[in-house]
Backbone:
DNA sequence: GACAAAAACTAATCAAATTAGTTACAATGT
DNA sequence: ACATTGTAACTAATTTGATTAGTTTTTGTC
């Protein structure tokens, strides 16, 4: 047992909270250590430095996102499930802006562990689209369409990039409608 | 006249090139200075530090993107123009991954200068959508839909986040079709 | 109670951004 | 041609943060 009750989980979840509050790129190990009541080198007993912390934040975030989406689509199918999944994604991403930022950096950390973190999510999405009358290949394309839109739109919202004063909630709703209507045209009769 | 022919423009365009080659976050002022044949403190005569450099990269990128899109949609209208604009965005973003990364960080730099950098682009998009038979308010929503999708999809491609081996080009084409078909359902008769 | 492992600590190193203060160059006016 | 002046470069120093090395403390086990 550790002297301070400190462990990797506590570090990650505290870092996630700090990332949401002050921005991912503003976290320093010194601040995190201070916050946890230890000196910064002590963190190295649990994590492998700042890059490793960010990678673990990414995995932590995708796992949480997956849970949210799974809960959101339970008992629903077809386009209603797609809609519910989109809202779950968007809500999680915008409630956790700092963590979502970490989640976007796949490229720096390509390995088995990170692939696994996102593959669970995709298999959920794939099951949802499988209930539509659309070819498997097109389902794969659609998932990419949705991922692109959801990540981009969430990022724009988190960055307060919409100068225009019109409602963001309405934009999201209309966007999801547009996507669903577009997807319907791919149905095979 | 400067001793080395060094000026802000040369710094920015060299930094853009380096960002594309090795990633935005891997650029250091030392490297940039070495590359330009000066010592790193000398850069401070032209730029106001690393954050200012990134802000200027962002503005530089959006301006170039705007030019690309303007050229792409000249002489086209309606959905063909939307399609052409989407492709121009996507191509610029994926040809310039490091620079595109800088372009995404609106939030760190919110001021008149950065607002101007993106507003030009939106007015182009707005003119394009204005040729459709869709209410002005919905046009504003649609622009957000497209921005979200284009930024997110480009980011995913740049980060090699699509593990699945199916064609990315086909996914993009299908995505644009889905969006356009969805947008058509907003037309007023 | 002694030992082994884990987890904390202090001290030191390294790299990078930035600032302070100084020197060299290049344009301009006499 | 020469002195003046502002700009842009330089060197040296500072600061901050990550990381590493080496040491000490605690905790669980025998």
Residues:
């Amino acid at each position: 047992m550790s002297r301070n009750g400190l462990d990797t989980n506590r570090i990650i979840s505290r870092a996630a909270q700090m990332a949401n509050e002050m921005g991912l790129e503003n976290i320093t190990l010194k601040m995190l250590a201070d916050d946890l009541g230890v000196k910064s080198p002590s963190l190295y007993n649990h994590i492998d430095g700042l890059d490793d912390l960010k990678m673990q934040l990414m995995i932590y975030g995708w796992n949480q996102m997956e849970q949210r989406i799974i809960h959101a689509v339970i008992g629903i199918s077809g386009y209603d499930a797609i809609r519910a999944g989109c809202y779950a994604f968007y809500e999680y991403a915008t409630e956790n802006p700092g963590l979502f930022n970490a989640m976007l950096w796949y490229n720096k950390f390509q390995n088995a562990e990170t692939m696994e973190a996102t593959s669970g999510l995709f298999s959920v999405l794939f099951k949802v689209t499988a209930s539509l009358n659309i070819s498997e290949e097109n389902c794969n394309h659609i998932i990419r369409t949705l991922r692109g839109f959801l990540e981009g739109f969430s990022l724009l919202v988190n960055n307060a990039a919409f100068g225009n004063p019109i409602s963001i909630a309405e934009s999201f709703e209309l966007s999801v409608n547009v996507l669903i209507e577009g997807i319907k045209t791919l149905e095979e009769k």
Residues 1-4, 6, 38-39, 41-42, 45-46 of chain B lie near DNA strand D (CB under 10 Å from a C1'). Chain B touches chain A through 47 residues (CB under 8 Å). Chain B has a mean pLDDT of 92. Helices of chain B lie at 8-22, 29-36, 50-73, 78-95, 97-103, 112-130, 136-158, 168-184.
